[in-house]
Amino acid sequence: MAAALIGGATREDAIALLTTAVAGNNPLAAVQDSMRAQAAAFADPAALELTVQHPAMDMPGSQLLGFRVGDLLVHSWDLARAIGADETLDPEVVAVVATNIEPMRPFIGQVGMFGEGPSETLDDNVDAQTALLDLMGRRP
């Protein structure tokens, strides 16, 4: 959807993409194709200045890129947890995503995409990855 939005897709087009099965018989190839398309779309610096019609709201391409990075980061943790793999996330990416998502703290649990949001039960000395995952509705 992100590549389509950068390419000029409308909100309605994006919503239709969300309800369309795209993996077919080869989910790995579908993911690889999607990642290549997104990388190509965001490779143009002008993409960051565009206003896109995301289903949630109109936003600059730079914000859409931030959403994609956060989404991919947290879902990589979800997958690692599900299959028993190493759950360690890149600390630099964690820091960037945390900075981008922290302003949503007061209402993130109401958005509908982050579970109940932060548990508000973490110790002040918790590591950055655990804090970010908790903010995004995960309970590591």
From TrEMBL:
Gene3D superfamilies xrefs: dinb family like domain
InterPro entries: DinB/YfiT-like
Protein name: Unannotated protein
Species assigned in the record: freshwater metagenome
